[in-house]
């Protein structure tokens, strides 16, 4: 399934509160493509309209400003990708599993996020580009992580420390190192240097090996 097909599927998924017309879908899809390629600041509504095959005035009949268009895209899409239900599923898939060792945990976590970014890299790219400039995008996901994921993450790391598999550093430090390392690998492969000839599986295996050896107790 292409990125555009995945985006359309997400837009239409359980859209009880938002009903998209065909023109509106074209606008949103064109905006996603344009924001992803050029960034929010460098994108124009005239360019988005041209790409969507509609008049520029059609955009402003649906969205008062370009920022309203951005928020109307990212907020519902990321709610479906990172909302409470998805966060609970993530906790179940990652933290409610019996692992034989720390490597199994890191492998499950790393490849879970790898599949997520690979499948949704266009929207993730927009979010990462704009999250520092728009508090409306940042705050919900900080709260979501703190409420639904962080405690389980801490508990899991402490368990591996108790088993002697993970170095006895502060738990928050270990979580930071895990997140930064996995996120850095994914950002490099899919968003920063996507045109490089990456061997994705090898990069992920090396990332896992780096974390397991680097955090060994």
UniProtKB/TrEMBL annotation:
Domain HTH tetR-type stretches: 21-81
Protein name as catalogued: TetR family transcriptional regulator
InterPro entries on file: Homeodomain-like_sf (IPR009057), HTH-type_Tx_Regulator (IPR050624), HTH_TetR (IPR001647), Tet_transcr_reg_TetR-rel_C_sf (IPR036271)
DNA-binding region per UniProt: 44-63
Signal peptide location: none
PANTHER family to which the protein is assigned, alphabetical: ACREF/ENVCD OPERON REPRESSOR-RELATED (PTHR43479), ACREF_ENVCD OPERON REPRESSOR-RELATED (PTHR43479:SF11)
Key word DNA-binding present: yes
Top-rank lineage group of the source organism: Bacteria
Keywords: DNA-binding, Repressor
Molecular function terms from GO: DNA binding
């Amino acid at each position: 399934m292409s990125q555009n097909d995945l985006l359309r599927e997400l837009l239409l998924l359980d859209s009880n509160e938002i009903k998209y017309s065909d023109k509106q879908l074209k606008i949103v899809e064109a905006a996603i493509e344009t924001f992803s390629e050029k960034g929010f600041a460098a994108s124009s509504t005239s360019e988005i309209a041209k790409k969507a095959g509609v008049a520029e005035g059609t955009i402003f009949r649906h969205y008062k400003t370009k920022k309203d268009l951005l928020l109307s895209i990212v907020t519902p899409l990321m709610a479906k990708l990172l909302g409470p239900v998805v966060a609970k599923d993530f906790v179940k898939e990652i933290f409610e599993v019996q692992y034989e060792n720390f490597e199994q945990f890191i492998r499950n976590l790393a490849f879970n996020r790898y599949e997520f970014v690979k499948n949704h890299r266009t929207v993730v790219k927009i979010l990462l580009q704009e999250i520092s400039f728009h508090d409306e995008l940042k705050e919900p996901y900080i709260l979501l992580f703190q409420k639904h994921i962080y405690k389980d993450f801490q508990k899991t790391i402490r368990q591996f420390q108790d088993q002697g598999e993970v170095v006895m550093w502060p738990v928050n430090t270990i979580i930071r190192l895990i997140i930064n390392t996995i996120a850095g690998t994914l950002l490099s492969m899919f968003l920063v240097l996507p045109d490089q000839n990456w061997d994705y599986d090898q990069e992920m295996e090396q990332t896992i090996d780096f974390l397991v050896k680097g955090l060994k107790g």
